[in-house]
Design a protein that fits this description.
Layout lengths: L16 E6 L7 H15 L3 E6 H4 L6 H5 L5 H11 L3 E6 L8 H10 L11 E7 L7 H13 L3 E2 L4 E3 L15 H23 L7 E2 L12 E2 L2
Parallel strand pairs: 1-2, 1-3, 3-4, 4-5, 4-6
Antiparallel strand pairs: 7-8
Helix pairs in contact: 4-5
Bound molecules: flavin mononucleotide (FMN).
Length: 224
């Protein structure tokens, strides 16, 4: 497998490859700052990290005529490719109107149509940052729904950074020591689970789309 340029491996942990990206498209994003911080924690904990930006995965609004005609746009195809190359993913996303940004849901919708469907049985950790007191946490609950529908193993503990515009130190870390420790603990606990699932798999990985519909054997059931 060809590794992207920005991939490093450290420590003695069993090899674990993690795709991480911020779902914000703007240059001065708080979520991108949080994702950068998560990347350094993951690398220090021994994970191999593939860093990406939402700009690489963004695409036009989903249209089934495009899917069946010209085919999948480059952005969603790239997200599919990068997910397939990793054991797990981390998304730091803004909250828009108490939900996830439309462009993130759009990317998930596109990718959900590509086979193999890459969210199935893949572990995911969700992060958010917002100037608000809730830190964008409602957006993460909305994001869990399509991901879990697609069979992703979404880590129970999500991390939402409240008042994010004031939370970072000049060096890019979290100014509050207690919060910084909790953030690192959250990421390391996630990595422990991914490592166990990657090296000691024990769960059946069949994924059934549209539960309750009679199976016709055409692209609805996928066993890993
Ligand atoms: C369309 C829109 C809707 C927003 N809705 C919310 C919201 O529901 N909750 C919230 O905490 N912040 C909301 N915000 C503020 C964002 O949290 C803030 O702009 C944040 O900096 C965006 O993340 P970013 O810095 O990573 O781009 C909204 C911003 C926009 C542009």
């Amino acid at each position: 497998m060809t590794q992207p340029a920005d991939v490093r491996t450290m420590g003695n942990r069993g090899a674990v490859r993690v795709l991480i990206f911020s779902a914000s498209l703007r240059a001065d994003s708080l979520n991108s700052r949080l994702a950068h911080l998560a990347r350094s924690v993951l690398q220090a904990a021994g994970a191999t990290v593939d860093w990406a930006t939402m700009n690489e995965f963004d695409g036009p609004s989903y249209n089934q005529d495009v899917e069946t005609g010209p085919g999948f746009p480059p952005g969603p195809r790239e997200l599919h490719r990068r997910l397939e190359a990793c054991d797990a993913f981390v998304i730091a996303t803004p909250e828009y109107n108490a939900s996830m940004p439309g462009h993130l849901k759009n990317a998930i919708d596109w990718v959900s149509r590509i086979r193999p469907q890459p969210f199935n049985a893949r572990h995911g950790l969700l992060l958010s940052a917002s100037p608000s007191m809730a830190g964008g946490n409602r957006g993460l609950w909305s994001l869990r729904i399509p991901l879990e529908h697609l069979g992703a193993r979404v880590f129970p503990d999500m991390f939402s950074l409240a008042q994010a515009h004031k939370a970072f130190s000049d060096g890019g870390g979290l100014a509050d020591g207690q919060l910084a420790a909790r953030f690192e603990e959250n990421l390391r606990a996630f990595l422990d689970l991914v490592e166990a699932a990657t090296h000691y798999p024990c769960m059946k990985k069949a994924w059934v789309e549209f539960l309750g519909e009679p199976g016709d054997g055409v692209g609805r059931v996928q066993a890993a």
